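= Paired protein data =
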Amino acid sequence: MNGNYYILANNLTAEEIAVVQSIIGHIEKGSGKVGIQRIARQNNVSPTFIMKLCKRLGFDGYSELYYYLAMNRTAIAPAKSAIGLPMLVDNYDAKQVKAFGALLAKYHDRKMFVVGEGFADLVADYIVQRLAVCGFMVFNRVHFFDLMMFRPDADSHMETNIEPSLIIAISQSGETGTIVNDVSLARQHSFEVVCFTRRADSTLAAASDIAFIVDASKQALLSGVPNPFFGKVILAFEEMMGSYYQQPAAGSGAVR
């Protein structure tokens, strides 16, 4: 297969992997979209079997899986993206990107959290959905993280048992109260922290193991239109996920 395709196959059966590889084969032949009935016949399975596979992989249906594979062939091909990480992250360092990938691998089987407020919460939701499709167990929304995970149990009066994991925080100013508070609580429970912010001198950046500075600014109050920060964070994260799946350690659970 000439292109690079990333589908987490850790929990897939041999039949399911064969279906995905069959779809990839047709994409690489350039014969246009092949219907679900044909893929089912070629693999001696039912269309229902394929639909269940799509749902397990996080897709709404066969068409969404097909177009995901077709788009990723061009999006994550040997040719470099026109918008690379050095253009998106002001303090770009290849070692930091690799370290972020190592944290994703380290905590792959634990509960991860992504937090943000306002527009940053929309970015957090995007990151959560991207990681979930890739097989990670990840949550956002501050209330869940704060109230359910870090408050003492009302009946036992004992601290909830929490396994150390990873929290990703997004804040333009790096001073958003609830986000800084969540990170502080996470630190108390031995979580590792990755943040995206505009301020290298912020409280959030100082509290993070890895701080990615995007659309850098020294202003404490940030406003204005257009505001490229949130879009750049999403693009940077997508580039980092691409880098993650190109690392040898991440390849064992992927169909390529």
Remarks:
- The chain has eleven helices and seven strands.
